[in-house]
Amino acid sequence: MTVTDTAVVEKRTPPSTPPVRRRRSRAGRTPWLYLAPALVVLAALLAYPVYQLGLISLFRYTQAQVSGGEPTAFRGFGNYADVFSDDQFWQVLASTVVFAAACVVSTLAVGCALAVLLTRVRAVPRLALMLAAMGAWATPAVTGSTVWLFLFDPDFGPVNRLLGLGDHSWTYGRLSAFFLVLLEVVWCSFPFVMVTVYAGIRSVPSEVLEAAALDGASQWRIWRSVLAPMLRPILVVVTIQSVIWDFKVFTQIYVMTNGGGIAGQNLVLNVYAYQQAFASSQYGLGSAIGVVMLLILLAVTLVYLRLLRRQGEEL
Amino acid sequence: MRAVRGLVARPWRFAAEACALLVAVVVAFPLYWMVLGAFKPAGEIRSSEPRPWTLEPSLDSFRRVLGQQEFGRYFLNSLVVAGAVVIASGVIAFLAATAVTRFRFRFRTTLLIMFLVAQMVPVEALTIPLFFLMRDFGQLNTLGSLILPHIAFSLPFAIWMLRGFVKAVPEALEEAAYLDGASRTRFLWQILFPLVLPGLVATSVFSFISAWNDFLFAKSFIISDTSQSTLPMALLVFYEPDDPDWGGVMAGSTVMTIPVLVFFVLVQRRLVSGLGGAVKD
Description:
The complex is a heterodimer. Chain A is mainly alpha-helical.
């Protein structure tokens, strides 16, 4: 029902003309009264820190300035120049993008495949899979990270024993360490995709699917030509949410690779910014990296908004 | 015809069900291994032939974790932080969601877009300015320094998700209430709030998780007064990268995971429909 609603709305009202709105009671000041607490909190603890982040990124701000030993010195875009001329930054940026992309693709593939699988099975296997997924979803990032480390522990973990890898260390190599983190990230984030897409598929009228099956469409064909287009709004939401989450992965990298891996080989932007700021006390530099990250995510969000608009969704 | 199709379809369904069960086992395995690791005696944990069962479950690891200085205190701190965040962000988000779904006013769409944009702000990047903010307001080393930012960070998503639930309450109900002479405030708290409450509970899972899991703020803002520390920090005491006390880590992880798991199982159904609602609108 959800999907058909959107589909109908899409057809009936072209995105450029605003849909006819029902008459509302006189709004006046009431909505702003209701919004006030939210706006105050967001302004003080979100907008203001973002502004501060931008400000700090323009200053020389190290331990000396924090303790008051030296005055803060304005250095314009000096921090940014430092960041951009640092080879490590570009390497970290590249690994962040590749790692996030790999996480998003794997999460979506696993989540969608399992959502389709859920619709094909009877109640008992479905409940089993749902409960297992809920368990993975509910696991806090810190504990998930330690548990996966334990599973892949070179000396006492079951995975190496099972695969006959001896005491191969997964966190030693750059790629294998990233792979291990990817497994954990996919494990704890596919349930969101699976549950959401499953709810979406369930809302597609069964006649549509039966008609497709009667016409002799294969499973893959049904997914590609019937389900995927109908589920597009949902797929957009889960994709963008996954991009935003996976681009910001922090705890998993921090705990599983012990703060960014050997010689920082497993750093991603978020951890890199944190290390620059709090480990090396380069607060200005760390803030500049934070701003770069913020801008990248802002770009992603704008793409998302455009997609939503194009679907003619009423906000 | 139908019988033939049934016969052809059946092996496929069995294959699908076997597949689903297999995946369920694989997905649940890390959790099983965590609980198992928590109960294994020290000798078995440090064996190079790990077995997927234990014949002599022991509570030693739990004793070691719970006996750790002030572990109960950390647990309580975590509960206080998560509880305060859930309640505060729930009430604030309810009011805001009501405003943006039940009223039409200028800047409404702009506000909604702002809430959406606010969701993508990387919390970790804001650790630096928040650290200075908390320092200036003397909030370092207090639970407030953990509660306040998490309220802010969980609000946008909560508002976005609650919209669906508020919208689902028929408008006729509102008109009827006013006709019967109810005031706006009365309608809000005595009619709308109870109706939206199930959705609010589902939404609160996300606030709960983000506050309960928080590791970065606890690490950065609770610097000297360890009595204000929370569970994730306590857990990492047992995790020495070179020689981790796996029994202790698994026992601590189990203790930390169970409350979230319970919360999840309780609200599971609402969560599924809530996500449908959040996505739908």
